[in-house]
C-alpha cells in the first residue's frame, strides 16, 4: 500500500499541467451506473451497502444543519407515508373492481328497471314487494327472457341461457384482446412472477402503469365472464403495481432495488388484505408464501398498509364482499373431538386435490406451450369460456358466482332459509313436511328433505365440473386467481361430507358413538363447518400455506373457535400434498417459466463441491477476465461484444490471475460510453484502469479511463473445496448473483445463480436447460 501511494504521488507530480485529467467516475455520478438490465438479478449486497451509505450520510449531515435534520425526519417518515398511499390506492382500486364485477356478473342474467347500473341485490333492496325468503326476487329485476318476451318459464329459459353465454363470451373476448394488445404481463395470477421479482429478479414492465390499468379492467371482465377463477391473486399483482409506481415519487425507493422490494413485500400483504378483508392473514401470507426478504420494520408497515386498504375498501363498498368479514358464519353447535376424523379426511382430500391440480395444470400448460395450441390464446380463452358457460348455466350452484356459492355452503341453516341446502323435514323454510318416528325424539327437523337430496347430486356434479374446468382455466391469457376456485372446490366437498355425517348421526343417534352428539332441539353436526374446513384443506393443498391460511380463514368467517379443525385439516393437506409433490402451484409455474428462483424451503443434500459446478469446465474456453491495467478501450469493448456475461472478474494480470475485484457488464458499458462522450481525447487505444493510482504515462499518450469506482473490491469468494451445500446457503441468505472460486488467491472460476439452479435441477433429475434466464 505504501508503494502504491508513492507511485500515485510521483505520477501526479509528473503529469504535465496541460495534460487531460484522468476521468474518474467518483467525481460525478454517471446516469445508469448501479442499475440493472432486464431479466437480470440484482446484487442484494451492493444495494444494502448503498442504502447504509446513504443513511450514514443523512445522519451525519443532520448533526450540523437544521434543514438536514428536517430532511432526515422526512426521510424516516417517507416509508410510512408510502404505505399509506399504497393502502389507499389499492383499496380504492379493489373497491371499484368489486363493485364492477358484481354488477357485470348479474348483467349476464338480467337487468334492473330502476337503473341498469344496479346489480341484482341492490335492485331489490328498495322493493317492498319481496319477503325475506324470496329477497332475491322483485318486480324491479327482470331476466333477459322477461324483458324480451315477457315470460321466463318453459322453453323461453333457452333465451336466458343464450344471453348468459353471449355475455360471458363478450367479457372474455374483451379481456384477452386487451391483454394481448396493451399489456401481455397482465395475464395470469401474478404471484409466481411477484415471488421471483421479490427474490431479486428484474422484469421490466411487469409492475408498470399499463399493466396496472389493463389488469384492473380485464380482471373485472374475467371474473364477470363466469370463468372458474378468482380475483385474489391478481389483486396481489395490482397492489404491487401500485407500490412500484408510487415508489418512483420517493428517491430512497426509486434508486434502490432492495428497498423497493421491501415495499413490494408489504404490497403483497395489501393485495391479500383487499381480496379477503384479512389484514393479519395478508401479512402472514406475504411472510410465509411470497417474500424473500422481510425485515421487522416491513412487518409493521405491511400491517398498517393492509389495515388502510381494508378500511378504504369497506368505505367504498360497505355492503358488498368488501365488508370486514367476507363469509361471516355463526355456528350454534360445538364440534366434537371425534369429528377430527372427518376433518382429517377432508385434509387428505385437499392434499390429493392439490397434487392432482398441480400435476394436471402443469401438464396442460406444457401441452399449450409445446404445441400449436399456445399460438391461439384468444381461441383458447373463448373455447374455455364457452364450455364453462354452457355447462354452468343449467346447475344452480355452478351458475352463481363462486363467492355466492361459498357463502351459501358456509351458511348454517336457519328457520327462514329457503335454500335447497336447508330443506329439512320440519324446517319451515324447506319444502318437505314429512315427519317420521325420529321426530318423536326431537330430531326430525334435521332429516333430509327432497330439496336437500336434489342439492346433493347437483353439488356432486358441481364438484367434478369445478375440479376439471379450474385445471384448464388457470394459466390462460386473462387475469386468473386460484384462491376462490380452490376454496369453492373444498367447500363443496366439505358440505357433501358434512351433510352425510349429519344424516348418519341423525339416523344412528342412539348408537354409542353418536349418543353425545345429538340432543333434542339441537343440531347434531354443522355441515357449514365441514365446508369451511374443506375450503381451507383444498386451498392449503394447492398453495401449501399453513399458519397464514388458518388466520385468513378465521378472518374470512369470524370463527375463532374452529382454529383446531382448520389447523388439523390444513396440516394434513400439506403433508399429503408434499408426499406427492414438493412444489406449490406457484413454485411449479416458476419452474415452468424458467425463472431463476432459488427456493429457500428446498433442501440441498448432495455431496458436491464448488469445483463441480464452477465455470469454466474442462471443455470450456478460458474464463473471460479484465486486467486492472494494460487493456485499452478497444480491447474491453471487443470483450463486451464477444460475450454475453453479466459481469467480469478483474485480475492483476493474465499471467498471475490474482483476483482484484468484479465489475458488472452494464456499469462497464455505461462508463465507457460516458467516457467517449464527455472526456476529451478518449480514443480506442486509451488505457482502461481499475486502479486507484495514476500509472506513469508518456506525454503523447491519450488520456486513460479510470473505472476504479465501479469495481467491487470485495466480491464473495469460495474455494474449490467448499461444499455446494454451503454455497447454496450463501446464495439464499445473502441474495448473491455470483461468487468467484479461488485457490490461494488465484482466480479459477465463477459460480452464478443460474449455475446453482441448473446443478440443483440436474441433481433432481430435471432438465437443467429449463432455467432460461441469467
Automatic annotation (TrEMBL):
GO molecular function, a single term: ATP binding
Domain of life where this protein originates: Eukaryota
Transmembrane portions of the chain: 66-88, 164-186, 207-229, 235-251, 263-287, 337-362, 374-393, 455-476, 482-505
Annotated compartments: Endosome membrane; Membrane
Organism expressing this protein natively: Cyprinus carpio (Common carp)
Keywords from the UniProt entry: Antiport, ATP-binding, CBS domain, Chloride, Endosome, Ion transport, Membrane, Nucleotide-binding, Repeat, Transmembrane, Transmembrane helix, Transport
Primary location: membrane
Protein name: Chloride channel protein
Entry annotated with the keyword Ion transport: yes
CBS domain ranges (all copies): 614-680, 710-769
Membrane topology term: Multi-pass membrane protein
Gene3D superfamilies in the record: 3.10.580.20, 3.90.1280.20, Clc chloride channel (1.10.3080.10)
GO cellular component, one term: plasma membrane
Family as reported in the entry's similarity comment: Belongs to the chloride channel (TC 2.A.49) family.
UniProt keyword annotation of Membrane present: yes
Amino acid at each position: 500500500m505504501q508503494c502504491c501511494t508513492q507511485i500515485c504521488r510521483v505520477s501526479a507530480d509528473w503529469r504535465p499541467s496541460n495534460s487531460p485529467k484522468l476521468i474518474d467516475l467518483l467525481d460525478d455520478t454517471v446516469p445508469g451506473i448501479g442499475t440493472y438490465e432486464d431479466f437480470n438479478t440484482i446484487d442484494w449486497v451492493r444495494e444494502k451497502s448503498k442504502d447504509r451509505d446513504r443513511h450514514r450520510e443523512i445522519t451525519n449531515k443532520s448533526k450540523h444543519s437544521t434543514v438536514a435534520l428536517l430532511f432526515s425526519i422526512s426521510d424516516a417518515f417517507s416509508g410510512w407515508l408510502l404505505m399509506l398511499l399504497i393502502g389507499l390506492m389499492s383499496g380504492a382500486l379493489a373497491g371499484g373492481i368489486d363493485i364492477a364485477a358484481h354488477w357485470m356478473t348479474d348483467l349476464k342474467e338480467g337487468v334492473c328497471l330502476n337503473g341498469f347500473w344496479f346489480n341484482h341485490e341492490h335492485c331489490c333492496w328498495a322493493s317492498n314487494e319481496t319477503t325475506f325468503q324470496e329477497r332475491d326476487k322483485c318486480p324491479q329485476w327482470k331476466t333477459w327472457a322477461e324483458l324480451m318476451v315477457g315470460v321466463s318459464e318453459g322453453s323461453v329459459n333457452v333465451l336466458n341461457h343464450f344471453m348468459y353465454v353471449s355475455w360471458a363470451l363478450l367479457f372474455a373476448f374483451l379481456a384477452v384482446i386487451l391483454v394481448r394488445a396493451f399489456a401481455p404481463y397482465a395475464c395470469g395470477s401474478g404471484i409466481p412472477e411477484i415471488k421471483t421479482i421479490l427474490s431479486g429478479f428484474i422484469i421490466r414492465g411487469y409492475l408498470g402503469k399499463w399493466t396496472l390499468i389493463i389488469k384492473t379492467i380485464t380482471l373485472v371482465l374475467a371474473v364477470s365472464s363466469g370463468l372458474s377463477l378468482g380475483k385474489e391473486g391478481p389483486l396481489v399483482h395490482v397492489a404491487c403495481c401500485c407500490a412500484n409506481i408510487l415508489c418512483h415519487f420517493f428517491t430512497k425507493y426509486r434508486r434502490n432495488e432492495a428497498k423497493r422490494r421491501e415495499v413490494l413485500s408489504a404490497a403483497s400483504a395489501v393485495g391479500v388484505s383487499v381480496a379477503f378483508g384479512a389484514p393479519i392473514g395478508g401479512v402472514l401470507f406475504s411472510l410465509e408464501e411470497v417474500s424473500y426478504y422481510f425485515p421487522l420494520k416491513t412487518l409493521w408497515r405491511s400491517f398498517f398498509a393492509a389495515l388502510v386498504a381494508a378500511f378504504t375498501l369497506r368505505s367504498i363498498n360497505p355492503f358488498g364482499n368488501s365488508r370486514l368479514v367476507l363469509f361471516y358464519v355463526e355456528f350454534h353447535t360445538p364440534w366434537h373431538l371425534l369429528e377430527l376424523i372427518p376433518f382429517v379426511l377432508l385434509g387428505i382430500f385437499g392434499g390429493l386435490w392439490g397434487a392432482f391440480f398441480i400435476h394436471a395444470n402443469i401438464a396442460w400448460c406444457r401441452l399449450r406451450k409445446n404445441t400449436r395450441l399456445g399460438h391461439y390464446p384468444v381461441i383458447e380463452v373463448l373455447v374455455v369460456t364457452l364450455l364453462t358457460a354452457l355447462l354452468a348455466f343449467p346447475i344452480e350452484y355452478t351458475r352463481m358466482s363462486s363467492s355466492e356459492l361459498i357463502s351459501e355452503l358456509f351458511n348454517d341453516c336457519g328457520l327462514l332459509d329457503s335454500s335447497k341446502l336447508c330443506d329439512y323435514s320440519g324446517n319451515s323454510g324447506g319444502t318437505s313436511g314429512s315427519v317420521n318416528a325420529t321426530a318423536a325424539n326431537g330430531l326430525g327437523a334435521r332429516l333430509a328433505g327432497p330439496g336437500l337430496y336434489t342439492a346433493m347430486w347437483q353439488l356432486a356434479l358441481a364438484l367434478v365440473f369445478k375440479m376439471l374446468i379450474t385445471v384448464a382455466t388457470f394459466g390462460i391469457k386473462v387475469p386468473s386467481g386460484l384462491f376462490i376456485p380452490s376454496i369453492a372446490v373444498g367447500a363443496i366437498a366439505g358440505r357433501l361430507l358434512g351433510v352425510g355425517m349429519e344424516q348418519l348421526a341423525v339416523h344412528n343417534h342412539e348408537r354409542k358413538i353418536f349418543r353425545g352428539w345429538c340432543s333434542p332441539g339441537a343440531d347434531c353436526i354443522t355441515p357449514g363447518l365441514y365446508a369451511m374446513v374443506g375450503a381451507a384443506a383444498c386451498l392449503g393443498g394447492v398453495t401449501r400455506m399453513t399458519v397464514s391460511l388458518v388466520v385468513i380463514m378465521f378472518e374470512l368467517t369470524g370463527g375463532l373457535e374452529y382454529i383446531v379443525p382448520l389447523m388439523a385439516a390444513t396440516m394434513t393437506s400439506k403433508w399429503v400434498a408434499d408426499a406427492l409433490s414438493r412444489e406449490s402451484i406457484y413454485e411449479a409455474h416458476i419452474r415452468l417459466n424458467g425463472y431463476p428462483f432459488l427456493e429457500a424451503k428446498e433442501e440441498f443434500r448432495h455431496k458436491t463441491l464448488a469445483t463441480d459446478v464452477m465455470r469454466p469446465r474442462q471443455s470450456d474456453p478460458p474464463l473471460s477476465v479484465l486486467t486492472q491495467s494494460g487493456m485499452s478501450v478497444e480491447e474491453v469493448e471487443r470483450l463486451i461484444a464477444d460475450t454475453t456475461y453479466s459481469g467480469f472478474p478483474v485480475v492483476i494480470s493474465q499471467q498471475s490471475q490474482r483476483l482484484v475485484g468484479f465489475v458488472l457488464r452494464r456499469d462497464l458499458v455505461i462508463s465507457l460510453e460516458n467516457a467517449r462522450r464527455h472526456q476529451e481525447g478518449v480514443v480506442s487505444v486509451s488505457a482502461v484502469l481499475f486502479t486507484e493510482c495514476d500509472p506513469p504515462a508518456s506525454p503523447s499518450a491519450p488520456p486513460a479511463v479510470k473505472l476504479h469506482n465501479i469495481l467491487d473490491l470485495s466480491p464473495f469468494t469460495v474455494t474449490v473445496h467448499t461444499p455446494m451445500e454451503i454455497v447454496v446457503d450463501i446464495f439464499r441468505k445473502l441474495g448473491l448473483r455470483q461468487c468467484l472460486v479461488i485457490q490461494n488467491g488465484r482466480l479459477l472460476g465463477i459460480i452464478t445463480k443460474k449455475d446453482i439452479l441448473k446443478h440443483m435441477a440436474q441433481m433432481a433429475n430435471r432438465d437443467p436447460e429449463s432455467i432460461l434466464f441469467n
